[in-house]
Design goal:
The structure holds two protein chains of two kinds. By secondary structure, chain A is mainly α. Chain A is about 75% helix and about 0% strand.
């Protein structure tokens, strides 16, 4: 794979990558969107004009106005504040889930790629079984067993994304395991753990991070989706999914809650997807040539 | 649990015996799988109806939705991908590229909500609730849900067809056909496109799971009585037998779909047949 060369960083590598990203208009747009959204999520409590659960005296389901930029929902809560608070939840879920899924996926992928063949076969079978299952149907089944909550969402998304990471780590590890520098290291008497941690890990991390960046929209969509069905974040806590659910129930009265709840999902999705594609193009020249 | 907080001990005992919960766990498992083989998934404790009947009643709605979505997505996605690979780097190729990235990433329930908002609430062109009466009514009620489920697939299919067409156009048998003086049109139709749709078929076969996920949202939003809506309402009622039955049937269909896509590939590509 071409990643061996790219992860060996020259002194100004970061600079070069940043310049390449800036030259890719879609990637730049994605990066800016991602920065804005993450920024809003981090500084949310200071940015939000109202308490997201505070019920206002004033118009219910009102259109956007000077006091309420995105309008108000069916109880008269400020939608902008709710969208910002929902963004915090979405980012929290994405961060925790992807962190957990990447860690476990990395470990399992290394075991599958470097371990004995029979273990590899068993793990692959398990990965494929999980992958072939509809995420939402799996989520609903888990909710039936342990009840809806934020943790259920995190658990469901983590379990369903582990195989994606494990698979890519496994493939990378397998191509590396017979590479000359690994063989040389082995000949010099390095232990398995040392080879995996010092030599394989850095080469696997790049593709893993790119994959994670492209996976953020999926995680956020699943969280919003389960919350939309009432199986995720419990009301009154604001999630983009619960905002959409409230909005859907009153869609014939006012379109604003639906628009306010879905706009951030669309922006996040587009931002992370474009950024991920641009990163992949930059870090994996082999793929770029194929396109 | 099902009987509620005011159940008498006698009633609980009676229900336990009727449901077979007093027998050993291993025996329960064997009975369950034995009945499953005969197509019997037990009785819905809330309504007293057979789970198999309930699930099978819902299934056609979901299958119709999924089939309609994937058919229209393929009907637009394949020509779009093929065309943009022939006219590479023109405006139509760029627009297709941006659109496919955009549509792939937008979740189906957002798509469904907007199609309700635009076509059913603002324009009032199409119905948004229910599955419709009669054949004509069912078709009309299918348009919006199928649109919402299918949109991302137009992007997926166009992208993968474009990529595989570009790859195949560089292969030696295509160069050979060109050397024999066949027209570009004939080469594309007879030699390139036929193989280029293979990855799309694999993608769809593997994507049936995603289609089911999308169908869950779309059925809830459009109030279609399909299997997705059934699962959601069963989860809300804690109706375990229905959830279990519906999930089992879903899994069976996904496995079946993978098999069918393998068969289609073998039919389209003689090389795969050799290996089987």
């Amino acid at each position: 794979m071409g990643d061996v060369a790219t992860t060996y960083k020259q002194p100004s590598a970061l600079c070069i990558y940043a310049r390449q990203l800036a030259q890719n208009p879609m990637g730049l747009m994605g990066a800016i969107l991602v920065l804005i959204i993450v920024g809003i999520a981090v500084f949310g409590p200071w940015l939000a004009p109202y308490d997201p659960n505070q019920i206002m005296i004033g118009p219910r389901m009102g259109p956007p106005s000077a006091a309420h930029w995105l309008g108000t929902d069916h109880l008269g809560r400020d939608l902008l504040s709710r969208v910002i608070a929902g963004g915090r939840i979405a980012m929290l879920v994405a961060f925790v889930t992807l962190g957990a899924a990447m860690t476990v996926g990395l470990a399992l992928g290394l075991i599958a790629g470097y371990g004995p063949k029979w273990l590899d076969n068993i793990l692959l079978l398990v990965f494929d079984a999980i992958r072939s299952f509809p995420v939402i149907v799996f989520g609903l089944a888990v909710v039936t067993l342990i009840g809806p909550s934020l943790y259920t969402v995190i658990l469901v998304v983590a379990i369903t994304s582990i195989p994606i990471y494990a698979r890519i780590v496994r493939t990378q590890t397998q191509t590396l395991r017979n590479a000359e520098f690994i063989l040389a290291e082995k000949a010099m008497g390095a232990g398995t753990l040392r080879i995996l941690a010092v030599h394989v890990l850095p080469n696997v991390l790049g593709p893993l991070l790119i994959l994670a960046s492209m996976d953020v929209p999926m995680v956020i969509a699943t969280e919003a989706g389960l919350s939309f069905l009432g199986m995720g974040v419990r009301p009154p806590a604001p999630s983009w999914g619960t905002i959409l659910n409230d909005g859907y129930n009153f869609i014939r009265n006012s379109p604003w809650p639906v628009i306010a709840g879905s706009a951030p999902i669309i922006l996040v999705t587009i931002g992370f997807t474009f950024l991920g594609e641009a990163l992949r193009d930059i870090f994996d020249p082999k793929l770029r040539r194929a396109q | 649990m099902v009987l509620g907080p005011r159940a008498t001990p006698e009633l609980i005992e009676q229900t336990r015996a009727a449901m077979g919960l007093d027998r050993p766990f291993a025996l329960q498992m064997i009975t369950f799988f034995g009945n499953l083989l005969r197509g019997d998934m037990g009785v819905d404790v809330f309504t007293g109806r057979s789970v198999t009947t309930t699930v099978m009643e819902a299934l056609p709605y979901t299958l119709a939705l999924i089939t309609a979505s994937i058919l229209w997505a393929a009907a637009i996605g394949i020509p779009l991908g093929a065309y943009s690979s022939i006219r590479r780097n023109t405006w139509i190729d760029r627009v297709t590229g941006i659109l496919s990235v955009g549509t792939i990433s937008i979740p189906s329930f957002v798509m469904a909500l907007y199609s309700v908002l635009i076509f059913a609430v603002w324009l009032r062109w199409l119905p948004a609730i229910g599955a419709g009466e009669g054949f004509g009514g069912q078709i009309v009620h299918l348009i919006l849900p199928a649109f919402a489920v299918g949109v991302p697939w137009v992007g997926y299919i166009a992208r993968i067809v474009r990529a595989s067409m570009l790859e195949i156009m560089g292969e030696s048998h295509v160069r050979m056909a060109r050397a024999f003086g066949l027209t570009e049109r004939r080469i594309t139709r007879a030699y390139v496109l036929r193989i280029a749709v293979l990855p799309a078929v694999t993608l769809i076969g593997a994507g049936v799971a995603h289609l089911f996920s999308a169908a869950v949202f779309v059925e809830v939003i459009f109030a279609r009585p399909g299997i997705g809506a059934l699962i959601v309402s069963a989860v809300n009622e804690r109706n375990y037998t229905i959830v279990l039955g519906a999930v089992l049937v879903t899994t069976a269909i996904i496995v079946l779909a993978t098999l069918i896509s393998d068969i289609i590939i073998a039919w389209l590509d003689p090389r795969q047949r050799e290996g089987m």
